Amino acid sequence: MRVGVLTGGGDCPGLNAVIRGVVRKGVQEYGYAFTGFRDGWRGPLEGDTVRLDIAAVRGILPRGGTILGSSRTNPLQQENGIRRIKESLAKEEIDALVAIGGEDTLGVAARLADVYGVQVVGVPKTIDNDLSATDYTFGFDTAVNIATEAIDRLHTTAESHMRVLVVEVMGRHAGWIALHSGLAGGANVILIPEQRFDVDQVCAWVTSRFKASYAPIVVVAEGAMPKDGDLVLKDESLDSFGHVRLSGIGEWLAKQIERRTGKEARTTVLGHIQRGGTPSAFDRWLATRFGLHAIEAVHDGDFGTMVALRGTDIVRVPLSEATSKLKTVDPRLYAEVGVFFG
Ligand code: F6P
Fold this sequence. Notes:
By secondary structure, this protein is an alpha/beta fold. It folds into two domains: 2-138 and 279-322, 3-Layer(aba) Sandwich (Rossmann fold); 142-275, Rossmann fold (3-Layer(aba) Sandwich). 40% of the residues lie in helices and 19% in strands. The strands form three sheets. Strands 3-2-1-4-5-12-13 form a seven-stranded mixed beta sheet, sandwiched between helices. The chain has a four-stranded parallel beta sheet with strand order 7-8-6-11, sandwiched between helices. Strand 12 (305-310) and strand 13 (313-318) form a beta hairpin.
């Protein structure tokens, strides 16, 4: 049996741990051979492959990024995309494919499995933690740790100058990184995409924090929106899955705060720092287990499924179900954290 492996979408810490888990168990326990495809769906589209064996996965567990490369290539948008993928899988004599990705990559995997009969098993990844079928995606814990450390550091410089520091974190549709890092880092305001915010209320929290002789830290997810405004975009371009490039809400908010409160406000945009570097111990653990269970699903012939974390168990769910709904922050959970605002 020959198994293809690809990593698609935005990279995230733990991808290499999955690849290692898949290959180690596949070779050692089942005697499988592997082919890596480069840069997500671009690999099978263009027949771009890379050697993938035990030697290739040695030493990669603690390394961020992905040894296979990644891209946001959408084969459904390419001329004869599906036919080209099927032809390159046939040429490489691939019997099954392990696709590691977020909603976009796995959405393509679900279509390939359900409509075109390709034997695919999915592994969920995204630092945003917004896939509904799994309790956690790997990469999220690392991103939260990085953002929390940044907030810890920003407290001391904010207090030295008695100014507002606005921290913009990733989170396109869901505010999980903002919520977890904001709570762990003791932020005074946390703004998430799921709930539109009132700039006057934010300014009231900022002012009350100064009254207590502390400098406020405002954590804002890149997808957060003011009540009477819109998403703040980096530019007008769309990626091949139709997503806009976000970023800028932090800068916009800092200006509003300065104008309305008269207090100096600065912005830190954490950006891709949240996605880079070595995965946390939790992400290495989760990613490795996902890899081991994904190859087991291949061995069982349980295609069209995705591995997922439920409690402490790894389960399998239909790929189509896994990608049909986003996991967003429950308003009750957000309200719970509100006691620390201001
Ligand atoms: O999808 C995960 C994510 O981290 C989003 O939060 C963010 O908008 C996006 O990736 C940015 O990715 P890139 O700069 O690679 O397009």
